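question for whoever is on the cluster today: can someone run the full assembly for these? two chains, 865 residues total. i dont have access anymore since they changed the login thing
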Amino acid sequence: MRLEPIANPSLARTILPPVIAIATTVVVASLLAMLAGANPFAVLGLILKGAFGSKFAVLETLNRATPLIFTGLSVAVAFRARLWNIGAEAQLYAGALITVVLGTGALPWGAGALLPTLVLAAMLAGAVVLLVPALLKVRFGVDEVVTTLLFNFIFLLFVSMLLEGPLKDPMGMGWPKSERLIAEARLPRMMEGLRLHWGFGLAIISAALVWVIQRRTTLGYEMRAVGLNRDAARFAGIAVNGVLIRTALLSGGLAALAGFSEVAGVKGSLTLDLSPGFGYTGIIVAMLALLNPLAVVAAALFVAGIFVGADSMSRAVGVPTYLADIMLATALLLMVLAILLTRFRVVRE
Amino acid sequence: MTGAEAAQVVLRLDRITKTFGKLVANDAVSLSLHRGEVIALLGENGAGKTTLMNILFGQYTADSGAVEVFGKALPPGNPRAALDAGVGMVHQHFTLADNMTVLENVALGTVPLWQPRLDPAAVRARITKLADDFRLAVDPEARVGTLTVGERQRVEILKALYREAKILILDEPTAVLTPQETDDLFATLRKAVALGLSIVFISHKLHEVMDISDRVVILRHGRLVAEMATRDTDRHALAAAMVGAEVNAPKVSPATPGAALLQLRDVSTPDQGNAPGLKRATLDLRAGQITGLAGVSGNGQAALADLIGGLTAPDAGQLDLDGVGLAQWSPRIAVQSGIARIPEDRHKTGTIADFTLTENAILESYHKPPMSRRGWMNWARAEAATQEIIERYDVRCPGPETRIRLLSGGNMQKLILGRVLEAAPRIILANQPVRGLDIGAVNYVHSQLLAARARGAAVLLISEDLDEIMALSDVIHVISEGRLSPEFARGSMTPAELGVWMAGHGFERDEVAHAS
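^ ran it for u. tokens below:
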């Protein structure tokens, strides 16, 4: 057997594989639910209901999707230029860290000045965190997959050290936890009475801006050229290293916004369990979205919906929430396969 | 060969058909080869020559059809069976182990695995005898890694002969050879034919086909379109049969050269892996003149192209534009200085396969008005400009929004021509501009280069095809191991004389002359 590229895939070939991928994911989840002794239709129904079945559920899903949109955008931007940023987790914590450093009273300003400052500071912090591996890559050819991945662990330990030391909340009863943000540093709700903070709005605006950058600016054109064919880009006169550095700055900044939004919109302080792997899940989100920034929003909602739905399903019937992880893993693997099948056909020798 | 029809048929291909997806590589091709005969298999790139031979040699399995060697059917898809039946193949890309000696390479695969050591004396004796019989001068003890390309090819032929091949298939054997090495190869082939071997010679160089073959078989789009005795035809008829229409090469009138626009003075550049850098190269590119660069591939052509294209800067020596030295040098500066660059590899460096025609057309101009302003792209303007290129340069495509990977090589090259020529460049760097193109596209590219010359551009034409260089160039330099020969005026050198330089001779004397 071998793969043969398809020059001009038909509409059916473009749409069917992803649909089949999602359908197969549902089947696999059903089988597992049966294995756990539950009625698969009930389980799937509960997941759907838990994710989108009520106003509360939808808001919960939107809240959960917010950090995933940011990290998904971060990964999508970097991967588009073939900069393999696996370090969104570290950049997320960098954004969170700077938010609590500046937002717990160090800058005694009103919300109108403080919030934009925090946004910019968080983006800067995330950008710096990814700048180091990016410079190592363009200067010495160090593989960024290794450096960004390992830096996640280093940075988490660094945050842990700060939370046990200088940033520790003296009123925190000994827990490794920062002081709480002042009220002016908290993200307000998007509408009165709705449990949805402005981090979600910021995420949607970011997705739109990234799309505009990629499609309408010279920088976006350069990023796509560098990602698709580095040799041709260099030959044409594009400063490939400069583009990679700028991509790193944007990607790091976007991931950091996830940390800012979680601290300022949800938690109010920094703890080590701020992110249950939002940085890594961002890779899944970006891949499911085929690196398209607008599709990242949809993919983040899908992933967040499965997580939130599985939580609520698990409370109702005794199926473990691990089902959500398996569903996501299955969806990702099948989606990668589906992408392959939209571009190649399998030929039997 | 008047007795060819009467001679024994050693190989018969019967209605071979092979498809790759929608592409029909071979369409019911039938062919028979007689004892002591040389058949030239002629066709454009992509005509199906190599596919046909790979089926014969068992590397591909045909969809339908049969192969018969010495009257016996050959099992499909089995190279071993082809070898045992007496078919030997010399591929375009050699299949030798660099770290082993000639002797070991030849013996490789002929000795059973359970035999712990081979008997070098016996192998050497046979190699020496074969080398004498077939005029293949090689040292059996030399490591293959140290041999020249011509010598490696001889080892490949020795390998086939050592396995008692009666039928030799040579896939574009002269593409990597100097004219002298080609003559040596032909001498060997004539010797082999005299000793009763039969040869299939794949090529798209017409004069070689006329020179060596008894019969010519022409493939076009996978179909056998013509078969004729070589003595009954001529180059013109062969070219016409290859492309299916009478072809007229552009007429070249004498040039009226002007001032030197770009000058190299003793320029050296670093070696890039196996590819040599320039060694004290001196060159003038004058307005209204085509300068041809002849040479065997891998002798520093890439280094010169990279230098003029802005990808590398000189290590030593002087690079002058309009008589002024350059402080900074980059691809973008090169483009802004009015250098049009037609790259050697249009897939790898010339275009971005998954970009649209529009996105590819603006690769060198996207960063400034009118294509963009203050970092914002003007796609409407870009698409209009691309539409203009499509019309003016006759790029056959569904439209500017098509991904360029769907275009044929010729249309891709036309878009690149449009991209670089629309800026009315003063200097044109054309690196292998017609490689892999059909004759129609070749003539188009050549006429564009001549038109540029007529309006006063300085053109540097880099090609491994000496015929192309000699037909178009007003002056010729030869490059060998990064060294540039002096400038030769049109018509002052024969191909054989240039071949001497291509083989690396003449340069030493030149250096002595400089020193004295």
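summary bc i know u wont read the tokens: The first helix of chain B runs from residue 49 to 56. The longest strand of chain B covers residues 9-20.
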